[in-house]
Prior knowledge:
Mean pLDDT is about 75; it is low at about 170-195. The chain is about 55% helix and about 5% strand. The two termini are about 65 Å apart. It contains 20 helices and four strands. It is elongated and about 110 Å long. Among the domains are: about 1-145, Nucleotidyltransferase, domain 5; about 155-190, no CATH class; about 200-235, no CATH class; about 350-420, no CATH class. The strands form two sheets. The chain has a two-stranded parallel ribbon with strand order 1-2. A two-stranded antiparallel sheet has the order 3-4. By secondary structure, the chain is mainly alpha-helical.
Amino acid sequence: MVIPSVKAVWPSGKRVFLQHDNAKPHVAADDPEVVAACSDGGWDMSIKPQPANSPDFNVNDLGFFASIQSLQHKKKARTIEDLVSNVEEAYNQLEYSTIDKVFVTLQSVLQASMNVDGCNKYQLPHLSKEQLRMNNGLLPPSLTCNDNIYDKATILLSSIEQDKSEGKLTYSFPSATSRQESTPVFEIIKTTKKSKKPRLSQHEKGRIEGLREGGLSTRVVAQKTGRCTHTVRRITAPAQPRADPARPGPPPALSDRDTRRLVHAASRGDSSAAQLKADLNFPVSVRTIQPTLAKVDRLVYTKMVNTLPLTLKDYGMNFIYQQDNASIHVSKRTVEFFSEQEIQVLNWPSKSPDLNPIENLWSILSRRVYANGRQFDSVQDLKVALFDAWDNIPQALLVSLVESMPRRCVEVLAKNGNKTHY
């Protein structure tokens, strides 16, 4: 599709080179269908793949894509469709004058690279494009190439072609008037690639330390030893003790010692968090003490042991303990505990949240915490919001949930165990 489009707008009497980068979707230059399409109709057209690692030789990478990207980045895209739409709109907004300037820059880049034997270590001069505009207001379609640059590039290409034909793995850096002596490729790599220096020996370290102690500067020592200034500083700088990594977030409200005192006091009786705070005279809130105690497994177990005797005290043995099938409720240790205490546990049907009013309470709590789409920046903020919402739930609501149990059971029976409106 590209080749017919080029033929439609390009003078047929001129030679055409189509250049693309080496992206996978692009076809090979010697593809039979491509070769046939290029020569169809008597056209002198061929494809020249872009040299590797040469984005500055591609007019699209040089300025076209960058211009579109800067335009579409001005708009936010929440979906892929938005991104595609923004790119298309940026493409339509791109002015012809911008593309005109990019093509002029490309020609200047090619000349600059030719002057340094195809390398990308060149300095691109300021072109003053506005001064290059012709009488019709357009930039010139082509720039005049310096004769010396042209001759130098021609000789270089000729030498490369000759070396290829002779099977030599060599590369030369010819001047415009004479060819220099050829240098094997591995020698070029050896001399141009920055090699990693060997490790410092103990003798070298001692010499560096001695030169510094003798009053020589870091720069002078580096020159005398053939090492960089960073290495010299690393060897001669006094060893610094490694500091412990900074702990992220604010410091804990309770020190380790205070936490131990809190756990010890909580394990001795049935004091509430508020009572512990008052007894220990801690300058923290109750909501700070509660999660600290919740992290101690043995306190949770003690609470379970103390809670069931209270139930026995109030109701005797004439009760059935109910809980859902959460993993912590059906763990091996929990099951053994109920068996040891001879506590009868209700067999809980799976997927039966309508039989447990606590599920409704969790839902109410969640709606209050996340009201109006509220979000939280940290777990601690979420905990504070949960405790606040819990404290503000009226007792009458809890009573109504408990009193709904008979109605729940009747409705489940009426629907043969299917879900209810609860």
